[in-house]
Design a protein that fits this description.
The protein is built from 11 helices and 9 strands. With about 300 residues, the protein is α/β, with parallel strands linked by helices. The chain has 2 domains: about 10-130 and about 280-300, Aspartate/ornithine carbamoyltransferase (Rossmann fold); about 130-280, Rossmann fold, CATH 3.40.50. The strands form 2 sheets. It has a 5-stranded parallel β-sheet. It has a 4-stranded parallel β-sheet with strand order 2-1-3-4, sandwiched between helices. The longest helix is centred in the C-terminal third of the chain and has 21 residues, at about 280-300. The model has no long low-confidence stretch (mean pLDDT about 90).
Length: about 300
């Protein structure tokens, strides 16, 4: 699971259906009917993470496997060891699969072509974040049913967002219309080559009324996005209490986290009982990652 570009709807729905079946394990602690052979799953996280890292660790334990967590700080990467050498050494210890987050776009793919065990991409630079998109789509599917023809707004720092890239691929594969919304410096590309399923807008108020779902993104200051943002960002692109009132009551609000409250999303929107699906995303993230680990161990790398 290195990315979602080119993954078809059948493969996506297979993972999503498996995640739905695993939700009782996450929500209620229901035991798995057929516990698998215990495996050892490496979690190599070389960028900061709360939700993704903890979610993979919980998912691993819920499946009855053993997680081995390694972060960049305190590892031999601090001594100059390469990403591939670090991953190869972990694989040589007998890992059954490796989950990796790296600042290097394509880093997970590079490792996967080298170490000979299943690799799951937990975010690689500005490239992709496939498991985040899968949990987002799982959340949307639970709220909206079929996503065919649904208009999903992705709002904010599109330029630096691996979440946006993976969601574009997943949502298009499931027939949704993706509307990318943000200031021109953070939305500079032409998406015409992706086909009629993607639209681009620089006026949030102009498209808000047509939304079937809204996904807010934070400004990624760690990727130097701050210089492209005007001081009035919240008033132009934030999901404020005023904009919340113009959304239909059945429109779900998503955010991959961490949230910058008072910038891209106000407290009222994050806490809206009827619309906010932000904590539901977190819950479904564990089930989706359980399904991904299952799939990685079922289809080992050749």
């Amino acid at each position: 699971m290195l990315g979602l570009r080119g993954v078809d709807s059948k493969a996506l729905e297979s993972i999503l259906d498996r995640a739905d079946a695993l939700l009782p394990v996450v929500r209620d602690g229901v035991a798995l009917p057929d516990p698998p052979r215990s495996a050892v799953i490496g979690l190599l996280f070389l960028e900061n993470s709360t939700r993704t890292r903890c979610s993979f660790e919980v998912a691993t334990r819920r499946l009855g496997h053993q997680p081995i967590v390694l972060t960049g700080r305190g590892s031999s990467l601090d001594k100059g060891e390469s990403l591939v050498d670090t991953a190869a050494n972990l694989a040589a210890m007998g890992l059954d699969a490796l989950v990796i987050r790296s600042a290097i776009a394509g880093g997970a793919d590079l490792v996967a072509r080298t170490i000979g065990i299943p690799v799951v991409n937990a975010g690689d630079g500005r490239h992709e974040h496939p498991t985040q998109a899968l949990l987002d789509v799982s959340t949307l599917r639970a709220r909206l049913g079929s996503l065919a023809g649904k208009r999903v707004l992705i709002v904010g720092d599109i330029l630096n967002s691996r979440v946006a890239r993976s969601n574009i691929h997943a949502l298009m594969a499931l027939g949704a219309i993706v509307v990318l919304v943000g200031p021109p410096p953070l939305l500079p590309w032409t998406f015409a080559e992706l086909g009629p399923g993607v639209e681009v807008a620089h006026d949030l108020d102009g498209v808000l009324g047509s939304a079937d779902a809204v996904m807010m993104l934070r400004i990624q200051l760690e990727r130097d996005a701050g210089r492209a943002v005007a001081s009035d960002y919240r008033f132009a692109f934030g999901l404020t209490a005023e904009r919340l009132e113009r959304l239909r009551p059945d429109v779900p609000i998503l955010h991959p986290g961490p949230m910058n409250r008072g910038v891209e999303i106000d407290d009222a929107a994050a806490a809206d009982i009827a619309r906010s699906s932000i904590l539901e995303q977190v819950t479904r993230g564990v089930a989706v990652r359980m399904a991904i680990i299952d799939r990685a161990l079922e289809f080992p790398a050749s």
